[in-house]
Amino acid sequence: MDKMAKKEKKTEIITIDPQAIDQTQINRAGEILKNGGLVAFPTETVYGLGGDATNPGASQAIYQAKGRPSDNPLIVHITNMEALEQIVAQVPQAAYTLAERFWPGPLTMIFQKNEKIPYETTGGMDTVAVRMPSDPIARALIDASTGYIAAPSANTSGRPSPTQASHVAEDLGGRIDMIVDGGPVGIGLESTIVDLTEQVPMILRPGYITQQMLSDALGQEVPVDPGLIAADSDRKPKAPGMKYRHYAPKADLKVVEGDTDAVVAEINRRCAQLVAGDQSVGIIATEETKDRYTYGTVISIGARDDEDAIARHLYGILRDFDTLGVDAIFSESFATAGIGQAIMNRLLKAAGHQVLEV
């Protein structure tokens, strides 16, 4: 749907300790989901906006609350393999192999769906994306509901994904029934998505589970969808987010790639020009470079060799610059060896694929 829901609900915020889950509170949230309502909750990746995946009206409500295009599929969250077997046409052996290695965890697999999951949940497609989260609050909530929660990221469509409950409240307060505050998430990037509906499994979205990890688990090369590299794709997406710009801050964001010294010099040069023109600028730097910038507001994303910190901080920093109201943002590139592919996928989408090579 193109129009976002008007802010007319009273959104209740409850706090749950993931180390000591209050089952009474979880059951309250579960009842909201059973009755077709919407509940935002933490996962190990980002906060999700949950609705009953088997209820067409609940899925439509998710699209409306987010302002999300209705042909952008939702991920169905489950807690056990029996639940998977009940919503897909068949489970290929590769799925059992990957589930044994990576579930519960930040991996989404795409299957041919059956009639239990409505087309409203799958964006009109005959395939369904399924994930088994490891976060204890997420798992308790799934089990307290119908066992199937459709949950995209709990943000206004196109904005940086939420990594803490305050981000959800900022975007969706007044549009949904409840926010479950379980503290900051652990990973900070959405799950890896692998398509198992073709003869050769293919990565449709990179994430914490890397291409090498998937290839090692299956004993064969798992290719990355070529559409991930392109700035635009005309193909109908099987995976959430493939077709649309995501994670974007309000300010114009450009990524600067190249030798570190050249990157720092180029960002300083461009910032000097903008500041001279009475514009405010933000810089996403690393611990190694943060003191080398002369102009603007500099925020360190972490040490360059700490991939987990970079992933965990990215969306929060983009939101921080929204709060600061800067006119332009420049970011260093973070193409690290492990989850660098996933980090750069999100950063390039946030920048609308604006890259300056120096």
Can you tell me about this structure?
By secondary structure, the protein is α/β, with parallel strands linked by helices. It has two domains: 12-228, DHBP synthase, CATH 3.90.870; 252-357, Threonylcarbamoyl-AMP synthase, C-terminal domain (Rossmann fold, 3-Layer(aba) Sandwich). It is built from ten helices and 15 strands. The strands form two sheets. It has a ten-stranded mixed β-sheet with strand order 1-8-2-3-7-4-6-5-9-10, sandwiched between helices. It has a five-stranded parallel β-sheet with strand order 13-12-14-11-15, sandwiched between helices. 47% of the residues are buried.
Could you give the count of β-strands? 15
Terminal CA distance = 40 Å
Biggest sheet character: 10 strands, mixed
Q: What is the number of domains?
A: 2
C-alpha geometry: globular
Question: Mind telling me the CATH superfamily name of the largest domain?
Answer: DHBP synthase
Low-confidence stretches: 1-5
CATH class of the largest domain: Alpha Beta
Strand order of the largest sheet: 1-8-2-3-7-4-6-5-9-10
**Helix content bin:** 25-40%
Radius of gyration: 20 Å
